[in-house]
Amino acid sequence: MKEENKYLQAFLKKEKKLISEYMEGFSWEKTYMNWENVLGDFGIDTKNLFVEVIIDNENMTDCRSYLSWWPKGKIKECKALVVNEFVGNGYSCRYPAASIDSGFSSGQRDTLSFMWELRNNTNKIAALLFLASFHARIISSRKCFPKEEWPPYLVVSELTNLIWEKLNNNERSYKWHNACGNVLPINSEDWHFKITDVFSLTHYISIEHCQLLSKFQPVKVTFKQ
């Protein structure tokens, strides 16, 4: 028993050293600053990620506002589609059911809901999006971790935990169901090149968020009677 404990302690010490070597110099403040700079270089306004779309609702009596991912630069076309499919026909729209809003998973809708709740706190939105990016790779029960291309799993897990602490507290915890896969409506190919350090990894994820917010516009659709 003592021999087993000795090997366990040696193993844990080795793990701790590995994590310490990779995480040396890491800080959330530097990561957040780099995230803002990268998104700014792509022309993304991190202070105003949502667009609110107001739709006149003369014929609809039971319609709730909702959040969705709309194609970037296609707000007018998407709004016209919603008007044509619902308002023009006098349908009751209790849930986002326009064709433009279909195809998104519950996890991806949860991400929008969390982003809307945090819309006035860019620092926490950044942390949320990092966790969303890591979810399918390291948190989900269906996770697919690029072990040959990324730093060791233990290191990325520690990074995820540190960012988690920046986002969550005793009053509010943001998380997705473990069964959810990709909670962002984009897929990055993690196997094209090797990432050897934590800074490069967080930079890579920041670019993924640029891809996300260059392709999709978070919107809140509100029906006005």
Structure, explained:
The chain has helices at residues 2-23, 28-41, 75-85, 106-117, 122-139, 153-167, 198-215, and strands at residues 51-56, 66-71, 216-224. It has 225 residues and is mainly alpha-helical. The chain has 2 domains: 26-45 and 118-215, no CATH class; 51-105 and 220-224, no CATH class. Strands 1-3-2 form a 3-stranded mixed sheet, sandwiched between helices. It starts with a helix and ends with a strand.
Quick one: overall form? elongated
Give me the strand/helix succession.
HHEEHHHHHE
**Rounded to an integer, what's the Rg over CA atoms?**
21 Å
Strand content: 5-15%
Quote the average pLDDT.
Answer: 88
Continuous helix count: 7
Quickly give the structural class.
mainly alpha
Summary keywords:
3-stranded mixed β-sheet, mainly alpha, 7 helices, 225 residues, 9% strand, 3 strands, single chain
